[in-house]
Structure formats: C-alpha cells, structure tokens
Amino acid sequence: MTSEPADGATVASVESAVLRFDEPVRLTAVTLSNGAGEEIALPRSRSLEPAAQVSLPLPELRPGDYRLDWRALSADGHPVSGGFDFTLELLRAGLSLLASLGILGGGGALLFAVLLPRAPEPALRLARHLAFAGSGLALLALPLRLGLDVVFLGGGWTAGLDPALWEVVLTSPAGQAAQVQAGGLLLLLAGTAVPPLRRLVGLPGLLAALAGFALLGHTADLQPTWLAQALLLVHLAGLAFWLGSLWPLLRCTEAPPDQAAAAMERFSRQATWAVPLLLAAGLALVVWLVGRPEALVDTLYGRLLLAKLAGVAVLLALASANKLRFVPRLCRGDPAAAGRLATAIRLELLLAVGVLAATALLTSLAGPPT
C-alpha cells in the first residue's frame, strides 16, 4: 500500500489524501488526527465501493503534524488496517528547498573550480563565491529546519528552548543526516576559503554533504541499500557539477576568445564522462523507485520527476548545441560565437534553477510510489 502524501513526508499544501492498494478494497473507516491526538472531521470518511485507489478530500489544515488511519476489507473479506504520518509546513518545506539548492549549487561550483583550475580567473573567482554562498545558505537553513521540528514536537515556539526535545531531534534520522551535511558543508567552506585545501578538504566535504541525502532520502529504504545510495551519490554529484558550472561558464564567455575556447573545451571533456554517469545513475533510480509507468502521471513524485526529466532533456539539447556548434565556432575565432554561446548558457541557467528545484522537492517533499 502507498499513499500521497507519503508516510513521513513534509508537504507545503495538501487538499486530499490518496490511498493506493495492491487490490480493490472497501474502505470502511478513515480518521485524521493532529499532533495533539485530536480527531479532525473529514468530508468523507469511507468508500464502500471496491477500488484499488481512493482519493479522500481533506479539510483546510493548519501547519503541523498529522496522522491518517484507515481500516478496510480486502477482496477476500479479510480486515486490513494501516496509517501514515505527514507534516504540513510551508516554512519547513522552503528551508529544505534552500538547503538542497545550497548544497547542489555550491558544491557544483566547487567541482568547477577543482576540475577546471586553469579557467579564466574571473570565472574561478565567481565559482569560489558561489561555493561559499551556497554552503553558507545551506548551513543557515539546516539548523532552522531542525528548530522547526523541535517547535512542532513541543507544540509551541517556547519548545525551541527545551534541550530534551533538541536531543530527540538531533538523534533522529533527520537530525543525524543534517549533522553529516553540516559537517560536510564546513569542510566545503574551508576548502573554498583556502585554495590549497580545495581537493583535500573541499571534495570530502561535498561528498559528506551529498551523503546526507542518501542517509535520509528515499534510497535508504531500497535493497541493497549501498547500491541505491551509491547511485544517488553519483547522480547528485554529476548534476551538481553540470548545473553548478553554468554561471562560471557564462563568465568565461567574457574572457578573451582563446581563453574562453580553452575553458569550454576543458569543460566539454569533463562533461563527456560526467553526464553519461549522471544519466545512467538517474535512469536506474527512476526504474527502481517508480516501479510502474503509470506512477509517473498519477503521483506527485512522478509528476515532479517528469518535470525534472523534461528540464534535463532541454538542457541536454542546449548543451549539445553548445558543444557541436558554438564552441567550435569560438575556437575558430568567430566573433559572434561568444555572444550566441552566452545566450544559450543563460537559457541553461534558467532551466537549471527549475531542475535543481525539482530535485530538491523530490528529496524533501514527495515520496516515491514504491
């Protein structure tokens, strides 16, 4: 059985609950309760017609923690029951999004500086600034998100001063993952601030920050876990490098033509192995997590995934045009090539924001069908 919202999900808004079963059932009773255990009246609390999927409208809910419990009769007449928890919190969802964007965007900029050390100095300087800003943004968002968890557990803002509740949150899976990410981000910051430490300290820091997604994300429930987590790390690292490099690459187009052409050629060589790894790992995870093709359209996770895939497809088309048309013209000294390349990269940047947002939402707001 799966649900939407998924068990344990944090959502910015919710208008209905969707229950999906392996076979048609008669839903005999549904109850919704808040974090204090108080039952909330539902517009419809049963569905006696046999169905494998039931959508139940929900009343307008205030931010907080909720649990939905259900009882049903299976096709063979046996009673079955279950339930799931979800959190409605726009602010927490926004903080999760900022943390994810900071890690992926800042980490990708660091990878650009490491893998293209001879890029024009203005581009390298911008990459360092982006890595620093992204890491700082994520370091600010992570403790604020944990603080909101403490507030919800305690039922009020004063609970944020309760050390016992902080201990509960920090020792939870979410708290432990956030601590791993925060430690990684501190290393990433150190590597950004001290260029000689960029590889020795910054790259392990980025790996730790990305590992936090694998420790708590949807891959943690897949078996074998190590393989799913490895695929996610490869996918996120490739995505971060590709998208985090776009703004520095745009700055490269402002350099003298020979320097710009050399930087673009070096990036193309790195992308030749990074992008296939990104796509292969991502495709494997899609098949693993989605399970059934129809889930791509009838679940929130599937729709967000389709939006991300559409953005990546357009990015691939633009990147191919850059590699096959504009970069060769730039290398031949075409005076108009730099401007056209800059326009294409600006379009990629706009799409990159959408792809990064969809990726962050997939890791924080939506649960996979499996």
Which regions are unreliable across 5 or more consecutive residues at pLDDT < 50?
none
How far do the termini sit from each other? 9 Å
Shape descriptor reads globular
Order of helices and strands: EEEEEEEHHHHHHHHHHH
Radius of gyration: 23 Å
> Strand percentage, roughly?
15-25%
Q: Structural class of the secondary elements?
A: alpha+beta
- Calculate the mean pLDDT score and round it: 84
**Helical residue percent band:** 55-70%
User: What does the main sheet amount to?
Assistant: 7 strands, mixed
Please tell me the total number of domains. Answer: 2
The strand count comes to: 7
Individual helix count? 11
Please, could you describe this protein's structure?
The chain has 370 residues and is of the alpha+beta class. The protein is built from 11 helices and 7 strands. Strands 1, 2, 3, 4, 5, 6 and 7 form a 7-stranded mixed sheet that branches. The mean pLDDT is 84. The radius of gyration is 23 Å and the shape is globular. A hairpin with a 5-residue loop joins strand 6 and strand 7 (79-88). It has helices at 90-115, 121-154, 163-170, 173-193, 198-216, 225-244, 246-252, 257-290, 295-298, 300-331, 337-364; strands at residues 2-4, 9-11, 16-34, 39-40, 47-57, 64-73, 79-88. It folds into 2 domains: 2-88, Immunoglobulin-like; 90-364.
